[in-house]
Amino acid sequence: MADFYEQEHLNSLFENATEGIILTDRSGKIVLVNPSAERMFGYQADEITGEPIEILIPDKTRTKHRELREGFYIHPSNRSMGHNRDLHGRKKDGSNIPVEVSLSHYKKNDEIFVIAFIVDITARKEIENSMRRQQAELERVSQEIRKLNAELENKVEERTMILREALQKLEQSQVELNEALRKEKQLSEIKSRFVSMASHEFRTPLSAVLSSAALLSKYTAEGDQDKRNRHITKIKNSVHHLNDILEDFLSLGKLDEGKVSSTLTPFNLKQLLEEVMEEMKLLLKPGQKLELEFNADENILSDTKLLKNIIINLVTNAIKFSNEDGLIRIGCEKKPGITKISVEDNGIGIGAEDQEHLFSSFFRGANALNIQGTGLGLHIVKRYADLIGADVDLKSELNRGTTVSLFIPSK
After folding, report:
1. Residue finishing a domain among 105, 120, 135
2. Is the pTM of this model over 0.70?
3. End-to-end alpha-carbon separation of the chain, Å?
4. Is 225 part of a structural domain of the chain?
5. What is the pLDDT of residues 66-112, one digit of tens each?
6. Range of the structural domain that residue 378 is part of
7. If we measure between CA atoms, which residue out of 207, 196, 197 comes closest to residue 245?
8. Do residues 134 and 174 lie in contact, with contact meaning Cβ atoms separated by under 8 Å?
9. Which of 184, 169, 48, 205 is nearest to 116 (CA)?
């Protein structure tokens, strides 16, 4: 049931992705096409499945693309959006569209498959063309100013004022266009980071599930129960990790759509922290300990669900980034007008150069890239804290540990 549930999520990600996704085999033939790619190129999936990928390449670059494709299969490597190339795709009606393409690859049964993530950047190109037209207009107006100053010395001040206003409007328009382009590029970079991170984070646990499931079928003897149990545990852990990733994506989506709001109600804070500790004990590594130091009023006015999610996120991070036998402290103390909740660990810590970016989406510290995670945990913590009117503070030192504190307004 869990595998079916997770497969539904994966199918949903593929079917509802805003980027076009196309999977090709070693011969360059199209294996899978998602709905966004169908809409982008004007084909139905069954029209191009089994066709060479060059069906979607403009005629003038088709031969060159075939050579590049063959070279890629010889030396495959992941490539980020654009990769400093001016790329176009060919639609079913013969028209061309500007695109950005990110490539990823994987092997299955010793056969290489390539995944192309495609973004239609027609809107960005239109903005860039509009900016060039605006620049030409600015130059024309500047020449007109110089011409009028030479020809109309008696009306310099009046004419200059009129043209200056026009120039200011044009400059303001260029500023707005620049800002629109900056935001569009920023969004494209975020999408690229998401695609790269998601493809990597999903691949690892899925591979573990597939390999463990295959090995389970080989251990049929009665004395193989321990081996079967080990692989069942691996499958459960991988499914749990996939569920965590999906929960992070769903939480971020709801926050971005404004579907998360806070409801302040009175509740017992100490009891909430004890519940979290009990739930988190199942995630502790061998030898790890979880302690609570409570020196505050037990009753508090806040959003129970959001606060619990914040604390679970912080404790999960502390467990994940701490070694075995490590101690994790949850502290709670009362200050004037504030209730302070802190989660402290003695784990790997965070470098100073990374700390300013930690609350950004999809950001991961340089020393945590080999540890499973989406880079969304602290971003979601900050967004939830804002909703309940709380402040978040982080202090960390490499190889010494991290302390994250939450300051909740209270009477």
Report:
1. 120
2. no
3. 47
4. no
5. 888 888 877 787 776 555 667 889 999 999 999 888 888 888 888 88
6. 265-409
7. 197
8. yes
9. 48
